[in-house]
Design a protein that fits this description.
Radius of gyration: 21 Å
Structural class: alpha/beta
Distance between the termini: 48 Å
Number of helices: 10
Oligomer: single chain
Order of helices and strands: HEEEHHEHEHEHHHEHEH
Helix content: 25-40%
Shape: globular
C-alpha cells in the first residue's frame, strides 16, 4: 500500500507541473446595419489567452460561411474543436476568428440594390468588430477565408481590396466564370437567392466573380491559398484550376491544391488545418 501511495503522490506532482491549457471561448451577438435589413449575427472565436491578457491585440481571421450555413457554422460543425486542438498543439498561433451571417448574399451588393452586403461588410462590420474586440486594425493583422459561397466571397474581397488583407485562404470556393446555361431559371434562383437578380443575370455574375478582380488587381504582398475536391459536386474544381492558371499567368504567387474529395464538410474538416496554418504563417505567428 505504501508503494501505491508513493506512486499516486508522484503522479500528482508530475501532473501539477504540466503547463495548463486554458480553453478559448465563443462569443456570439448581432449588430444592425444601414445596408442590410434586420440584425446581422456573428460569432467570435476567442483564443485561450484573450481574457488573461487584456492589453494584448490579436490578428483576426474573418471566416465566411457557405450557402445553407450561418454565423454559427464553425461552432456547430465541430471546426471549433479542430481550431482549439491546433492552438493547443502549437500548430497555429493565437488569433481571433469572426464569422458573420450572410444568408444567400454571396457577400456582394445585390443587383436590385436591396441587400448591400459588400458595403455592410467593408464599411460597418469590420470597423465594428475592431471596436468590439481586441483585434489588429492593420493589413498585416487581418486575413479572410471561407468555404463554398464564403470562399467566393473571401477571394472576391481579397482581390478587390488587397490593401485590407494579409492573406486569403479558402476551401472549395464557388468558382465559375459563367453561370451554366439555363441557370437563370427559378430552380437555380431558389437555391442561390436573388443576389444576381431574378432570374440570375449572367452579366452581373461575370462582373462580380473573383476572376473579374484577379485579372487586374495589384495582389503584391497578398498571401493566397485555395483548394477543392477533385469530385466537387458542383464542378468548382474546374474553376479552381482556372484561377490557378490565371494567377500563374500573371506571376502572382499562390498555393493551390486539388485533393481527393467532394463538396462537403468532410472535405473541409480534412483540410481546414492547412488554411489555418497558412494564415498563422502569414501573420508571422508560426
Amino acid at each position: 500500500m505504501r508503494v501505491i501511495h508513493k506512486i499516486v503522490i508522484v503522479l500528482i506532482l508530475l501532473l501539477s507541473t504540466l503547463p495548463a491549457f486554458s480553453a478559448g471561448r465563443v462569443q456570439c451577438a448581432s449588430l444592425t446595419s444601414h445596408y442590410v435589413s434586420g440584425p446581422v449575427g456573428y460569432c467570435a472565436l476567442l483564443p485561450p489567452s484573450y481574457d488573461a491578457q487584456p492589453a494584448k491585440k490579436y490578428p483576426v481571421l474573418y471566416f465566411l460561411h457557405g450557402l445553407g450555413g450561418d454565423h454559427t457554422f464553425l461552432v456547430n460543425s465541430g471546426a471549433w474543436s479542430i481550431i482549439e486542438d491546433a492552438q493547443e498543439e502549437k500548430r497555429i498561433g493565437e488569433l481571433v476568428i469572426i464569422t458573420p451571417q450572410a444568408d444567400t448574399s454571396f457577400y456582394i451588393n445585390s443587383k436590385d440594390g436591396r441587400v448591400k452586403y459588400e458595403d455592410f461588410f467593408m464599411r460597418e462590420f469590420i470597423p465594428e468588430m475592431e471596436k468590439r474586440f481586441r483585434v489588429l486594425a492593420t493589413r498585416t493583422g487581418r486575413a479572410i477565408g471561407g468555404i463554398s459561397m464564403g470562399g467566393y466571397g473571401a477571394l472576391r474581397f481579397a482581390f478587390k481590396y488587397p490593401q485590407m488583407f494579409a492573406a486569403v485562404a479558402v476551401h472549395m470556393p464557388a468558382l465559375m466564370e459563367e453561370l451554366p446555361r439555363g441557370s437563370g431559371g427559378a430552380g437555380v434562383t431558389a437555391y442561390m437567392g436573388s443576389a444576381f437578380g431574378r432570374p440570375a443575370d449572367q452579366t452581373y455574375w461575370k462582373a462580380n466573380t473573383p476572376f473579374a478582380f484577379a485579372r487586374t488587381a495589384n495582389l503584391r504582398g497578398l498571401k493566397i491559398y485555395f483548394d477543392c475536391g477533385d469530385q466537387d459536386d458542383f464542378g468548382f474544381d474546374a474553376g479552381t484550376r482556372e484561377l490557378d492558371k490565371l494567377l500563374t499567368a500573371r506571376h502572382v504567387p499562390h498555393t493551390t491544391h486539388i485533393y481527393p474529395g467532394r463538396h462537403n464538410w468532410e472535405f473541409v474538416a480534412r483540410h481546414i488545418d492547412e488554411s489555418l496554418k497558412f494564415d498563422s504563417a502569414a501573420f508571422g505567428l508560426k
